[in-house]
């Protein structure tokens, strides 16, 4: 640091202030010091900075699967929001064979230079209802599940399903068949429950669930099966991959969409992949969830005394195309 001060013609204190991101240095001086740092190959010691400030300006993200569409878009939202505030992001995976609990995840994160943790909770962990974050470590869950000790945020999975189910029923369909995601998926669980409850509120008993695995192939098999179910006119698939597979399965069985059977999916992620897409879908704003999740954690880190658990659900938006037939007309 003394070499930088000597080269830049400033005091060591000025170099320290620039290194620590202080606003008390004039812009021209800061730019000159930064140029010298770059020329001399200086890298700030973030551990020392953390000791001085009491935080690292970094958060951790824990997740089960980084390549799943929703997770990837949520992570993109987190990293963009973090970059806006000069935060770094450390990612850890909850892989198979590892102990899967919030306590284990946070314990791993405590050994890393992070100030808080965002857990993208695709599957229920055994201690979600009992875990209490340690002092000095803010923990937020991306899930529709509720917590009394941690803030949560998610797309409104339940509300998405009530919207889709009512949309079908309002257009004259007597019932709605559901193709789920994997049984262990929390998103699929809340979507399934929303579908069941929406039908019940209209006096309709839910037909048997067709279990899928988020893939187009599982949707295709569901379409083949439902094509032979008498009076099946409406199918709600838990994501767009399954919904597109359902449409192909129905076509293979000689059924037309929407003339014979109507189909709606969730996520609206195929619009840039499938030309002339006809699938009606619920657009989920994963990026907004990620951005909001980061801001909630950052706010709690900056002002821990005002932090208290909150729950936010971001509603989806129905994108109408041409895969639903209105039977009332």
From TrEMBL:
Residues 11-23 have a biased composition (Polar residues). SMART domains: HTH_LACI. InterPro entries: HTH_LacI, LacI/GalR-like_sensor, Lambda_DNA-bd_dom_sf, Peripla_BP_I. Coiled coil: none annotated. The keyword DNA-binding applies. Pfam families: LacI, Peripla_BP_3. PROSITE patterns: HTH_LACI_2. The keyword Signal does not apply. It comes from the Bacteria. Residues 1-25 are annotated as: Disordered. GO terms for molecular function: DNA-binding transcription factor activity; transcription cis-regulatory region binding. Residues 1-53 form the HTH lacI-type domain. Keywords: DNA-binding, Transcription, Transcription regulation. PANTHER family: LACI-RELATED TRANSCRIPTIONAL REPRESSOR, LACTOSE OPERON REPRESSOR. This is LacI-type transcriptional regulator.
